[in-house]
Every structure is written in structure tokens, then in C-alpha cells.
Amino acid sequence: MDVLTITDLTKQYRHFTALAVLTMHVPQGAIYGLVGQNGAGKTTLIRQVCGLQTPSGGTVTLFGIDHREPGIVQARQRIGAVVETPSVYLDMTAAANLRQQYQILGLPADETIPALLQTVGLADTGKKKVKHFSLGMRQRLGIAIALVGGPDFLILDEPANGLDPQGIIEIRELILKLNREQQITFLISSHILDELARLATHYGFIDHGRMVREVSTAELQKAFKKRTVVTVNDTRILARVLTEKQMAFEITDAHHAAVFDVPEVTAFVMALAAAGCTVQRLTEVDESLESYYINLVGGGQHA
Ligand code: ATP
Question: Is the domain of 18 the same as that of 96?
Fold first, then answer.
């Protein structure tokens, strides 16, 4: 079942089309990475999902409820979100911020606060005010606030933005823990593709307000072309042998070539040696998420 299904979503700001007939599916239990360059429409899309803006056209279906149905209010209560910067009170402690959120939601500020602080790694912040927190601690507090009320679906807009490497690792581990231990589904927008690649089970690549492709990590792995970079004494012989064997390759210079889908390394090297071509090095290279993305949306300036 999809936690979120978006169908033909359009968002028009006066004459500017920020989202154009966009379709998207977030399956239950997924960590869905929303990828797009600056201005692609990620935040606009998240605003429509959270009900912060009204779509110009199309539908947003949350837990099976269409955004035009009255039940959407209850469905949205099952979402937690940190959009842009986390909204935290700087002059309060972490615990006081959480108490405030319980009050806003009309929930009793029960004994769950220490457990929530423990979950996000802020249990020992005591009387420290949020203004003295690092950016990573504020981000984790933002997630704790979003967790008040026990959501099934968390939406994080650029959660790693501005964080140092340690902060990025802590956010990653927190997301993975919440996904695995509490079965929370995630929608994460990010332009830090290496980081997203460590987390995501599904991706949606958007460009100029359009969904260019939706793919699961498993499908993506299959789509990645496995290359073996070969260093040889003579690429002319290499080209002849590979052509005879009907293998796909690209000669990069007089001594290097990229060969796709080498079936068996020993047989491959022996065939080359028999033809008089000495292999000096073989390196297997996986296509990165970044190169896949650039191939998908074309060259130029990218996230
Ligand atoms: P970034 O990572 O830079 O935030 P994004 O993918 O989240 O990028 P959006 O913030 O969704 O992009 O913006 C998409 C486009 O819509 C941008 O060109 C932006 O200028 C435009 N836009 C966003 N909000 C409004 C608004 N309220 N009125 C007019 N145009 C807007």
C-alpha cells in the first residue's frame, strides 16, 4: 500500500508553474528520496502534501484519503514534518520545546518526553537552551517535535543541510532507526546524493516541477552500468578482441578503456594476453547515483 500517492499534481504561482502534472508514489515502509536541483519544486511539493498550500490541480492521497475529502485532516495528523528549518523555541530547553508541541496538538505532555529525547540523542541536554545547541542538535530536536503524536510518516526537507559530517551521520542513524524500529515511512528531499544513497529505498527525480523518474533502489542497482576500467599496453588490440567477442566498450585513451559487463575476469585477461595485449590493471567501477541523475536530467547545473 502507498502511504502517499500523488496524481497529476500541478501548482501554479501566478504565471509560474512550480509543479506540472506530477505523479508520485511512496510505499509504506519506504525511505523515499526526493531528488532535484534548487528550484525543481521539492519544497513546493512537500507543502502540498502537508496541506500548507492548496494544489492548483491533481490530487494528493494520504493513507488512501484524497486531499479534497474531509478525512484528510485525520490523515494529516499521521504525518510529522520538518520543512525548511526546524521551528524550535531558542530560549527554551529541548524538553520544554516538546512540552509546547504536546500542548499545540492538545495532547497530554506525558512521560514520553524523556524517551523521545533519548531516541533523538538529546537525553543529556538538561537545562541547556536550544540557542546553545549545534545545528545537528536543533535538527534532531526538530525531528523529535515532528515525532510528537506518533506519526506513521515523516517528511524531512533537506535534513542534512548545513550539518557537519558528524551531524550528518547522527541524522542518518536516527532516520534508519526510526524506519526499522518504528516502521516510520520517510519522504526526504535532498541534494546531497551520496548521503541519500546510504538511506533511500526509493527515489523520485524531479526537474522543473516534473517527475522525471521514480525508481526503487533495487531497480536502480540493475540500471547502473557496471564498468571495468582496463589499463593495457595497446588499446587497438583490446578493441579488436572486444569487437570479436561482441562486448560493449569505450576507449578513453591509448592505454585505457571502459568495458561493460565483463563476465569472467580470468578468461577475459587470458584472451587479451593470447592476442598480445598486456593487461596492467583492472578496476571495477559502479555508476554513482550522481552520474545516474546527471544522465537522467541532462548536463548543466545540478543539485
Ligand atoms: P530549493 O532546494 O532551492 O528550496 P526546491 O526544489 O525546494 O528548491 P521550491 O522551493 O519548491 O524549489 O521552488 C520551486 C519554484 O517555485 C522556484 O522557482 C521558486 O522560485 C518558485 N516558488 C516557490 N514558492 C513560490 C511562491 N510563493 N510564489 C512564486 N513562486 C514561488
Answer: yes
